[in-house]
Design goal:
The complex is a heterodimer of chains A (303) and B (201). Chain A has 303 residues and is mostly helical. Chain A has helices at 7-51, 68-74, 77-109, 115-127, 130-140, 147-152, 169-176, 183-195, 198-206, 211-222, 224-239, 243-246, 258-267, 271-295, and strands at residues 54-55, 63-64. Chain A has one domain: MetI-like fold (Orthogonal Bundle), CATH 1.10.3720.10. Helices cover 70% and strands 1% of the residues of chain A. Chain A has a two-stranded antiparallel ribbon. In chain A, α13 (258-267) packs antiparallel against α14 (271-295). The termini of chain A are far apart. Chain B has 11 helices and 2 strands. Chain B has helices at residues 2-16, 26-34, 48-51, 80-83, 93-106, 109-119, 130-136, 140-148, 159-162, 165-180, 186-200; strands spanning 75-78, 154-157. A two-stranded parallel ribbon of chain B has the order 1-2. In chain B, α1 crosses α11 (186-200). Classes of the chains: A mainly alpha (303), B mainly alpha (201). The A-B interface holds A 72, 75-78, 138, 142-145, 162, 164-166, 249-253, 260, 264-265, 267-268, 270 and B 19-20, 22-23, 164-166, 169-170, 173-174, 177, 181, 199-200.
């Protein structure tokens, strides 16, 4: 008697095999990333976290001192100045900076006359090194021969402002060095805009939606993830912002931030304290990820 | 002493300071000097070759007219980063012997003279050779520094070495605008710097 295998079983078994094969390939492709993450990210992060509880000069064996580095950090006024600045810059980044990037993406998506040229121009600041544009801004904001003060002196010859070195101007001068460079946000949002199915828009047109209503009720909600990623990128860039400050104000005019404290501690050979500062930056970064993820419901499916 | 120094600093800036001095880094100061915008550039003798290089001159600046002196009040800043050598404490006997032999070699009178001719500087305790004096006289700025150093010249440590690195490049420079624009008195400047120094302890 010939035993017949049901067709369904054969199909299920071959599906299982394909699934396992796919999984194996997924893990093989993930392996380099995991290896790089472990060696270049996780190990340094663990080292930073561990040494933040120690007194360490970078050469000799670290000595465990408990929470002393954190207590010392929390007792310095520049720490609170840095947190306050970070809060201000993060709010500006999440609203004005990302908002501007989204607006440009929506305009470029409509492909008006000269959109390709505008896109290229918008990209230019991203290919110029921070050191170069920091110098440009330094001259733009200079008190004696800066373009801004020269222009303002047309209306008030007595204007005498050191934009990068006096509070409260320095905060806004620093802000202007990155505020309109939102090409990352624009590219992210344009990607999502292009992925919106035409049928969704056609349905809205049939329902009588105008261009503004389409942008507000269809495009914007469907770009939620890209905007969320844009907010995360913008805020984390503010957390890690060092060169822009070091090359312009160097912390003058109440523009201190956590990376500047960190680098100054390293200059003093105080690696334990510097790493305590790094741990705080890490916590702030992870908190940002979590809050933005929840606010933009990034773990939920859009379509 | 520090308050006195800050008072001189404030007075110097307010009386003779360059309009772009606030927030200026060394390249800014050097550029303004080479462009005839400022009269004095505080620097070391290693810059002499650059001063005499006409490709850096602008606005009628002439490097050959620059004079060198220990200003103000015949005070010279000792800069260990340029002239000093250090030996690690944890080296082997053999490495120590090699290092000492090297120090002995680079501190021979002819080596010191060659170094001064190449990089500038002075060696107050060395009796210069005739050949060196002759070579020195060919470079006016080097001669200025060699001749103006006398037994009354005071050598002071570089302020950068007297305080924490971060205090110098960070807080000190961040507080300077307040001292320069008169918002802070030298006493207040010293007080704020002390506070910043205590926070580092």
């Amino acid at each position: 008697m010939v035993k017949l295998f049901p067709l369904k079983n054969i199909f299920d078994n071959s599906m299982k095999g394909a699934k396992i094969k796919t999984l194996i390939w997924i893990y093989i492709f993930l392996l380099p990333s995991v290896a790089i993450f472990l060696s270049f990210y996780l190990v340094p992060i663990v080292t930073v976290a561990f040494t933040s509880f120690t007194k360490w000069d970078g050469f000799n064996r670290p000595q465990f001192i408990g929470l002393s580095n954190f207590i010392k950090l929390f007792n310095t006024s520049v720490f609170y100045e840095s947190l306050f600045n970070l809060l201000g810059w993060s709010l500006i980044a999440a609203t004005l900076h990302v908002g501007f990037g989204v607006l440009v993406a929506f305009v470029l998506y409509k492909k008006p006359f000269g959109w390709k040229f505008t896109r290229a121009v918008f990209m230019v600041p991203n290919v110029i090194s921070v050191a170069a544009w920091a110098m440009i801004y330094k001259y733009f904001f200079r008190n004696d021969i800066g373009i801004l003060n020269t222009f303002l002196r047309l209306f008030n010859p007595n204007i005498n402002i050191n934009w990068f070195f006096e509070a409260p101007y320095a905060f806004w001068a620093i802000t202007l060095t990155w505020l309109f460079y939102a090409v990352v946000v624009t590219l992210l949002v344009m990607g999502d805009l292009m992925a919106i199915p035409e049928s969704v828009r056609e349905g809205a047109i049939i329902d009588g939606a105008n261009a503004l209503q389409m942008a507000w009720y269809i495009d914007l909600p469907l770009c939620r993830n890209a905007i969320g990623v844009g907010v995360i990128c913008s805020i984390t860039a503010r957390i890690a912002m060092y060169e822009a400050i070091y090359l312009t104000t160097n912390g003058a005019g109440n523009t201190m931030n956590l990376p500047v404290i960190l680098v100054r501690s390293i200059m003093d050979g105080n690696y334990g304290f510097a790493n305590a500062c790094a741990v705080i930056m890490l916590i702030v970064g992870v908190l940002t990820l979590w809050v933005v993820d929840k606010a933009f419901k990034m773990d939920e499916k859009i379509y | 002493m520090f308050i006195e120094a800050f008072t001189i600093l404030q007075k110097l800036f307010q009386k003779n300071g360059w309009s772009g001095a606030i927030g200026a880094t060394y390249p800014d100061a050097a550029n303004s000097f080479y462009a005839n915008q400022t009269a004095i550039l505080p620097d070391g003798t290693w810059i002499i070759a650059k001063i005499l290089d006409p490709t850096d001159w602008a606005n009628g600046f002439d490097g050959t007219k620059v004079v060198g002196d220990y200003y103000p009040e015949n005070v010279a800043i000792a800069n260990p980063y340029v002239y000093d050598w250090m030996m690690s404490a944890n080296i082997t006997k053999e490495e120590e012997e090699l290092a000492l032999a090297f120090f002995e070699f680079i501190n021979r009178p002819e080596e010191i003279e060659a170094f001064i001719l190449a990089e500038g500087g002075i060696a107050p305790n060395l009796e210069y050779s005739e050949n060196f004096k002759q070579e020195l006289s060919k470079n006016k700025l080097l001669t200025d520094f060699a001749n103006n150093a006398n037994p009354d010249t005071k050598y002071v440590p570089y302020f950068h070495d007297a305080i924490n690195a971060s205090l110098f490049t960070g807080d000190f420079s961040n507080f300077l605008p307040y001292l320069y624009n008169g918002q802070w008195t030298p006493e207040k400047f010293a007080e704020e710097l002390t506070k910043a120094a205590k926070a580092l302890q």
